[in-house]
Amino acid sequence: MIPFDLAFLFVGVAFALALVPGPDNIFVLTQSALHGRIAGLIVTMGLASGLIFHTTAVALGVAVIFQTSQYAFSALKYAGAAYLLYLAWKAFRASSGQFSAGKTPAETAPRLFLRGLIMNITNPKITIFFLAFLPQFVDPQRGSIVGQFYQLGALMVLATLCVFGFVAVAAGLLGDWLKSSPRAQIWINRLSGFVFVSLAVKLAWADK
After folding, report:
1. What is the reported pTM?
2. pLDDT in the model for residue 96
3. How far is Cα 18 from Cα 14, in angstroms, rounded to an integer?
4. How far is CA 61 from CA 108, 126, 145, 166, 201, in A?
5. Which DSSP letter does residue 20 get?
6. Residue 182 neighbours by CB distance under 10 Å
7. What CA–CA distances, in Å, run from 205 to 29, 49, 81, 190, 200?
8. Residue 42 contacts residue 112 (beta carbons within 8 Å)
9. Using CA of residue 157, residue 158, residue 163, residue 166, what is the dihedral sign?
């Protein structure tokens, strides 16, 4: 069991890390602006759920494979980049479509959740970061190592939900305005497309 003071310190660091502008919170911002705050919150849940994958990878030692194998690292990051390019293509395609009643095309909750989940788990740098970060808060004398990793992972999920949830709600206010402006929707879709392309390039060029 992780002591309260150590857990409190970890949560503080986790919140600070979540607040740093990066691909995930930018992703939440664009999805919330396009589809509304509820959609952004669903995407946030998908992203946060992906952290369970990275926690498991570290707890079971799978992260070492991504750290030592260039092939495994490259395969995952290129899969993530390809998915981002697919999202960019959808965004650019939507920008030239017709908007009925000034509303953006509907996105189902499962699709939004899956979008966030895939976005998170296909970034091998998160797994490697977890591998470097989480062990600093683990002590074999406190019991199960795997159990401690999952406790830390749960705290990281909590911090992510809070920070990204705030981003989703704030960006959703922009989305409310977009619903009354089809022209603004076109431009935000184009902007989202460029964001997805830039994130894909950044991921594809990422080094371990």
Report:
1. 0.72
2. 46
3. 6
4. 35, 14, 11, 33, 28
5. S
6. 15
7. 23, 25, 9, 23, 9
8. yes
9. positive
Two tokens, residue 35: 């589809």
- Scored b (16 or more CB within 10 A) or e, 102-124 reads eebeebeeeebbebbbbbbbbbb
- One-letter amino acid at 194 equals F
Taking only the tens place, the pLDDT of each residue in 179-199 is 556 666 666 667 767 777 876
pLDDT digits (tens, 9 = 90+) for 114-143: 999 998 898 877 887 787 788 878 887 888
Q: In this predicted model, what pLDDT tens digit does every residue of 83-93 receive, in sequence order?
A: 778 877 877 77
Contacts of residue 43, defined as CB under 8 A and 6 or more positions apart, other chains included, come to 27, 28, 31, 32, 112, 113, 115, 116, 168
Give residue for tokens 């709600």.
169
Q: How far apart are CA 66 and CA 156, in angstroms?
A: 21
The token duo for 64 is: 């070492």
